[in-house]
Amino acid sequence: MQAGYEERRRDSVERRALGRELRRRFFAFGRTCFRWKIKRGVYLFIRLLQPGDRAVFRQLRQRAIEEHPESFSSSSEELSDAPELLIASDHVSRFVVGAFAENGDLIGIVGFKQESLMKFRHKGVIWGMYVDKSWQGKGIAKRLLARLIECVETTTEVEQLNLAVAESNEGAKRLYESFGFVTYGLEINAMKLKDRTFVNGEYMTKQLARSRVAAGDGMQKPLFTS
Fold first, then answer.
1. Model's pTM, two decimal places?
2. Model confidence over 165-185: pLDDT tens digits?
3. How many CB atoms within 10 Å of residue 168?
4. CA distance 204 to 162
5. By Cβ atoms counted within 10 A, which residue in 45, 95, 116, 224 is the most buried?
6. Which helix (H) or strand (E) holds 76?
7. For the chain, how are helix, strand and coil distributed in percent, rounded to 5?
């Protein structure tokens, strides 16, 4: 009985020490970093990537493209030559949201880029959603997408989010639909892979709350509502 008590006490001390370390990591990024518990004693962190994260982003992006070439427009060769990986320091018109394990490994990513031309700046593009296969099935993609949409709504004037997804990727489409995205177009043979197979591209859009409010004030009503 004494041995069991000592073991429980050690476990309690270790959990408190882990909690202190998690809080230290959490507050190191201020309000830009969020954490959540996926099971007892296991926490993940979500934050906006910084310029210093480009190397780990490149590695995860490379893995994503190699595992699922049908889901990404870039090839592995094009990624290797890319001088800019769309990780900016201003975190306004473009940013990447990342999920990190406790050991610091980057295990999930999703990117955002606002259109640059004045007449299109009400629109933004979501790109590059990927979660490491060993971490899939734990709701990480859902958390990443939720955080991205929150950042867009609070830091930009974007009213509409667009994305493209492989027509055959039913899991990804269900995720986007759960956030209010609707399909507005289908491109036949959108991509041609190295093995000469074609991939159809499905285009989805989501009107953010601010555009729906504006439509009620006499502006043009959005074509799609969530």
1. 0.76
2. 999 999 999 999 999 999 999
3. 12
4. 6
5. 95
6. helix 76-81
7. 40, 30, 30
